[in-house]
Amino acid sequence: MKMLKIPEPTVVRLSLYSRFLNQASSKGIDIISSDEIGAAVGIPSAQVRKDLSYFGEFGIRGVGYRVRELCSQVDKLLCVNQTWPVIIIGAGHLGLAMSGYRGLQDRGFDVIALFDANPAKQGELPNGLSVLPMERLAETVREKDIRIGIITVPADAAQQVAEALIAAGITAIINFAPTVLNVPPEVKVRNIDLTVNLEVLSFNLGMRG
Amino acid sequence: MKMLKIPEPTVVRLSLYSRFLNQASSKGIDIISSDEIGAAVGIPSAQVRKDLSYFGEFGIRGVGYRVRELCSQVDKLLCVNQTWPVIIIGAGHLGLAMSGYRGLQDRGFDVIALFDANPAKQGELPNGLSVLPMERLAETVREKDIRIGIITVPADAAQQVAEALIAAGITAIINFAPTVLNVPPEVKVRNIDLTVNLEVLSFNLGMRG
Question: Residue A46 CB: number of other CB atoms within 10 A?
Fold first, then answer.
């Protein structure tokens, strides 16, 4: 497999393909075409073929791709063929929703614990996970060798939480708080911002007049 | 203002600029430079200047932009200078988190009601909003002239919910379910997918070895 630098939008699409390919594989499907993949994930088949050209050897010209082999290589590239321990900071509704989200475990992301500065939110959750005080953050990250943190605190607390995560050794952050985090270049942040997504919709509605 | 077709990544950035410009404006700042905007939202200043070239008349060469006028024009373009009624389908933790999210109202998105098929989840929430049965969806959308729906149901229910929304007259959807929705071309969907975002992180962690 060519290990070129893969652009981030391609990585996003590979993640979508992977989820579909895993479903197809578990249904016992052996060969799948770029048309079928594209239709399932809502991406033009020409784009699918371009993205999967990184995995050329699993294609059979004019027929399709060998599902199991392609799937396994895409998952290997995405590093979801291993388990990633994850922590969540903020045990409000959003943090609890994320901690109970089955899709994470299915893809190898294992929520180890939640953290919250509010003592009233600390303790054991019905799903068996613990909400720990922030003071336990550094030791947990170190002991469990955690690299990924999910921030679900309000905007005005997010930067401070990010700094605590980074000080503890976290290098990859999902940020749900509607604010831009200042982090060192070696820390990777993905922002998930509901307001921005809604504004793309209102922009589109406005364009239609 | 030139009304060219603006690419979606630019719209996303305009939404980020807008939030920062509104903050600056409310602090009484009159003039702001592209360097300052870029530093605040984590985007190179050359990109900021390119994006804001749509709004050229608010720039003062070598100095910056007139905050209040720029802000008002960006908000007008994004159509956030008006109130958009919004409904949420799915009253689990995620739906409740979204319904209580202050950032929405601040930007003109007004959650009118939640809907859930489970009678145990129906009723009034502590924040005063109602969780209504799905049977009330169509009348609510019609009466309140709602165009935007947020889907927070599990993946296996999402397509059916999307179809109910579209049948009721919704044309813009935020989809949190980890599945691709099949919708007619006139319906705009923005997917917010935690797993995909996590896999971009695991990909990056893997690349570092």
Answer: 10
The residue-averaged pLDDT of A202-209 equals: 84
B103 touches chain A (CB under 8 A): yes
CB atoms closer than 10 angstroms to residue B145: 8
pLDDT, tens digit, 9 for 90 and up, residues B117-136: 999 999 999 989 999 999 99
> Binding site annotation covers B149?
no
Point out the domain boundary residue: A35, A57, A78: A78
Over chain A, what is the mean pLDDT? 91
Asked whether the beta carbons of residue A147 and residue B205 sit closer than 8 angstroms, the reply is yes
B70: phi then psi, degrees, rounded to nearest 5: -60, -50
Domain count, chain B: 2
Query: What is the domain extent for residue B98?
Result: 84-195
Amino acid A209: pLDDT: 60
Q: Identify the pLDDT of residue A11.
A: 92
ipTM associated with this complex: 0.90
Per CB-CB distance under 8 Å, the chain A contacts of B199 are 11, 14-15, 18, 78-80, 107
H-run or E-run covering B148: strand B148-151
Residues A74 and A89 in one domain: no
What pTM does this model have?
0.87
Please name the residue of chain B whose CA is at the shortest distance from the CA of residue A97: B93
**Spatial CB neighbours of B49, under 8 Å, sequence gap ≥ 6:** B34
Residue B4: burial class (beta carbons within 10 Å; 0-12, 13-18, 19+): exposed
Same domain for A168 and A105: yes
- A2-27 average pLDDT score: 86
Which of A173, A198, A205 to mutate to probe the B interface, most B CBs <10 Å? A198
Q: What is the CATH number of the domain that holds B110?
A: 3.40.50.720
CA nearest neighbour of A41 among B157, B184, B191, B161: B191
Among A77, A109, A202, select the one facing B198 at the smallest CB separation. A109
Q: Are residues A60 and A99 in the same domain?
A: no
Neighbours of A82 (CB within 10 A): 10
Cross-strand partners of A84: A109
